[in-house]
Every structure is written in C-alpha cells, then in structure tokens.
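Minutes, project check-in
Item: structure for the 300-residue chain
Input as provided by the requester:
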Amino acid sequence: MKGSLSPRTPGVLALAGAGLISALATGRPELALIAVPFLVFGGAGLVLAREPHVTAAVEPARLRLLESEELTATVRVRNDGPEAVEVEVAPLRTEQLAVAPGSTVAVRLGARSEAEIAFSVRPRRWGAHGIGPVAVRARDALGVTTWEGRLGGRVDLRAFPHEEQLRELVAPLRTQPFLGTHVARARADGIEFADIRPFQVGDRVRQVNWRATARRGSLQVNQRHPEHSSDVVLLVDTFEEARDQGRGTLGSAVRTAASLARAHLGRRDRVGVVDFGGTLHWLEPAFGTMQLYRIVDALL
C-alpha cells in the first residue's frame, strides 16, 4: 500500500507554522502557544505512523448467475497489525457491473481483528465480469497518514444470457442412432406408427395388428418409426458486429445460440459450437447439462 499525508494534515501543519511565524513577527508568545497543539498533533502523528498490515478478499455467494440477477459479495477485511486502524473499502466498478452501496464503506478494525462488508452485485449484461481487487484506504489512529492500495485478487463472475422464446426448432434431415425425441425416417422399434406389413419369422407377437389381420386373413404387423437424436452444430459469426444505442448483433447472437443449445440438449440432441471471429474455435458435439455449461462458457 502507498502511504501519503491525509488531506487535513497539511492544514494542521500550516496552522502550526502560521502561529509560529506570527509569534516571531509580532513578538507575542501566546500565538506560539496556540500553534503548539497543532504542531504536537502533526509531529506525533508523523512519528508514530506505521504502515498497517491490512488484507482484503472478495467472496461472492456464487460464481454463476443470470444477467440482471443480483447476488451478495462479501469483502473480508483483516487487520494483522498491533494497532487499530480506520479502513475504507470500495469494490472496483465497471460499466456493465452495478455495485451497491455505491459509496465507500468505512469500518474501524481493532488490533488483529477482521470485519465483513456485504455488497450487492448485479451484472447489466451477459458475459464474464471481474470483481476485485478492492480499493482500500487505511488511516492511522490520529488520521495524519493514509495508505491506499488495491487488495485481494480478481474473482470472475459468469453471467448467463436470458433464454429467448423459440417458436419452433428445425427438424433434422438425418438422425443419429441414439435415443431422442426426433421421429426417424427409418423403420424399427418405436412409438410413431409407420406402416403395416405381413408377418415375418422373428416378429414379436405384440407387433401384430389384429384388426388388419382379421381384415386381410393373414398375420399383419405394425411398423414404427424410432425416436432418435440428431447432431446440431451452431455457427456463431463474431468477426463483425453492428451496434445501435448500446445493443449489438453479437449479444443477440449469443442469446440465440445459448437458447438453441438449451432447447436441443433438452431433446437429447448432441450440440456443438463453431465460433468464427478471424480464428476458428470448435467445441465438439456432446450430450447433457455439462455440455450446456461448456457451450455457454465458450460463448461468454
């Protein structure tokens, strides 16, 4: 931490100097007596001032949240020195990260003690936001000297974009032989009715269509379409962006891609992402909730 005189210290020393100069100029010793307390106060503060051993760390309640969602971040401040200090703490703010309270918070820390200060944090848009380090200003007991610095490390918050409302999803041209929700064009075991054909050796009895059998006079069985999954690859073009009044096409593209990924993964599809912004980045298709987190992290 960098030390300097507090704003009032030069004024105190100036009063002491003015009193001494006035006493010498006028020959009135009482003016010097008036200046002595200011001189003693300033001198004692400068002699006794010791750099405080203050540490600070930011501890958010969680690291993932939705954009515009609010969470609590705790700043833990500790004084490891042998003397009490007054500390002012203010988290570093950014344009896209709102922090409340907006002003600095002052606490008095005794020797070898700590305090917790709670701030509310709200990301204004999706993305990766850093909170910390925190700006800390400490004063000695007399308030003559101040030390300022940034303490604690950076903690990254990931704000997920809100899900967009999708009217419908595009049906896949071909499906993969994995269990899903898409009706495949092939005919095999499934739920969706496809056709009727004559009985063949190896067919199961539960496949027999008894109404068609009675109508045609020979065993007839049902054919069905199986429910398969598909492979979905989302291509996000991040090479250029058009912006208007603080909003851009990149934000809409990220929200749409995240919504599509969530919807297709909910249908048991394998989803991957290709990001082209001058350099090609590829995330291989996979299933499940963990893949959704990988996709959103890649988009952020």
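Outcome recorded: The chain has a mean pLDDT of 79.
No further action items on this chain.
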